[in-house]
Amino acid sequence: MLSQLRVERTSVSRWSQVDWGSLGFGGVYADHMFTLEYRDNAWGNPQIRPYGPVPMAPGVASLHYGQTVFEGLKAFRGVDGVIRLFRPDANARRLAESCQRLCMPPLPDGWFEAAIEALVAVDQAWIPCGAGESLYIRPLMIGIEEHLEVRPSREFLFVIMTAPARIYFKNEGQGVALQVQEHYTRAAPGGTGFAKTAGNYAASLLPGQCSNAAGYDQALWLDGVEHRYIEEVGQMNIFFRFADTVVTPPLRGTILPGVTRDSILTLLAEQGIACEQRLLSIDEVTAGIESGLVREAFGAGTASVVAPIGRIGYQGRDYRIGNGGTGELTAQLFNQLTALQYGETPDSHGWIRQMAVTEASPVD
Ligand SMILES: *Cc1c(COP(=O)(O)O)cnc(C)c1O
Questions:
Q1: Confidence band for 364, pLDDT divided at 50, 70 and 90
Q2: Is pLDDT of 170 > 70?
Q3: Rounded to the nearest whole angstrom, what is the distance from the C-alpha of residue 95 to the centroid of ligand 1?
Q4: How far is the CA of 245 from the centre of ligand 1 (A)?
Q5: How far is the CA of 200 from the centre of ligand 1 (A)?
Q6: Half-sphere exposure in the Cβ direction for 221 (13 Å, CA)
C-alpha cells in the first residue's frame, strides 16, 4: 500500500507566515501536498512534495467539461495532544461513489486513508489547537488528458492538500440565515446531486450570490421537480426538530450523503431521539415554524460541524426559528461530535483514526 511513496520535504516552511490567531477557512494551505497519477489504466507515482502549482495544459478536458470530484474531512489535535481523523473510511467510500458517477477510476482499497495519514504526518505542525480549529483536508481528483471530445479522460491526477481552518460559520450564538431558492435548482433526479463534483457547486454560485445580496448567508435548496421539498444547503445537510422528532430529507440521489449527517443519525438513534428521514415540504416547515412546532433547525457538514439555523426566508417573508440562536439539541449534537473529534469522550463507534504524534505541537 503506497509502498512506492516518495517524500520530498520543503526547504522553506511557510508555517511562520501564518496568522495563527485569526484563521479563516481554507485561505492558506500547509507546506505539502500528496499527488498520485493514473496512466495506462493504473494508479502510480505517489508523492508527497511541497504544495505548489501542478503543470497543466489548457486543453485538459476536465477544465472544460468538469470531470472532477473532491472530498472534505478534518484532522484534529486533541486536548491530549493526540491527532485524530474523523471517519476517513466514510470519505473514501463516498469518493469511490462520486468517481463511479463521473467515470473516474476509484483508488485502490486503503490508499485514500494511507495517503491522508502520510500527508498529515508530514504537516502535523499545521494542525492548529485552538477551540473549533482543525486541519481541513481536501482531496481532489481531476481528468488530465488533453482532448476536446466529450468523453471520459484516460489520465487522472489525485491531489490531497490541507489547510488549517477554523469552523466555517463564525457567528457566535447567532443562527445561519437561509433563503429558500424558489427558481434555481441544484440537482435533479438522475443527475449528480449525490456526488461531490465541481458542476454542482458551479451551478450554485449565482443563486448563492442572490441569497447574499438579499441578506442571507446561503441558499436553501428545494427539489428540482416541484420546488416543494427541502433538500439541503450549500455544503450542509439540514435537520429540523418538530417538537420531539427530528426530520431530515432522505437520500434520493439529489443530495450529498454527508458523513456528518450519518453521524448525527447514529447519535440520535443511540439516545432514543425519534428521527425521520422523509420528504419534508417547505410549507410543512413554514407552518411548523409559525405554530411553534419547529423548535430548532441545524445544518450538518464537516466544515461547519453542526450550525444553528436562525431564520429562513421564503416568498418574501422571514421565518424566525426559536429565538434565532442555537437550540438545545443543536448545541448537544455539536458538543457530542466535537468531544469525539477532540478526544474528550471515548470513541465507541470506531469513527476515530488516531495518528502518532512525531513532532512537537505548535503554538499554544
Ligand atoms: C460536503 C457536503 C455536505 C456535507 O458532507 P459531510 O461529509 O458531512 O462534510 C453536504 N452537502 C454538500 C452539497 C456537500 O458538498
A1: very low
A2: no
A3: 12
A4: 23
A5: 12
A6: 30
Residue nearest to atom 15 of ligand 1 (CA): 235
* CB distance 217 to ligand 1 below 6 Å: no
18-58 pLDDT per residue, tens:
999 888 887 899 999 999 999 999 999 999 999 999 999 99
Report pLDDT digits (tens) over 70-81. Answer: 999 999 999 889
Shortest-distance atom of ligand 1 to CA 91: 7
Distance 53 CA to ligand 1 centre (A): 26
Q: Which helix (H) or strand (E) holds 245?
A: strand 245-248
The CATH 3.20.10.10 portion of the chain extends over: 176-341
Gap from CA of 258 to ligand 1 centroid (Å): 5
- In angstroms, the CA 342 to CA 75 distance is 9
Please give the class, per CATH, of domain 176-341: alpha beta
CATH of region 6-166, choose from 3.40.50.1100, 3.30.470.10, 2.30.30.60, 3.40.50.300: 3.30.470.10
Tell if the pTM clears 0.90, that is, is over it. yes
| Residue limits of CATH 3.30.470.10 in the chain | 6-166
Question: CB of 258 closer than 6 A to ligand 1?
Answer: yes
Report which ligand 1 atom has the smallest distance to the Cα of 302. 9
311 CA distance to ligand 1 middle (Å):
21
Residue 289: which of 264, 314, 268 has the closest Cα?
314
The sign of the torsion formed by the CA atoms of 304, 308, 313, 314 equals positive
pLDDT above 80: residue 360: no
Beta carbons of 13 and 138 less than 8 angstroms apart? no
Rounded-to-integer distance, Cα 139 and Cα 48, Å: 13
Atom of ligand 1 nearest to the CA of 73: 9
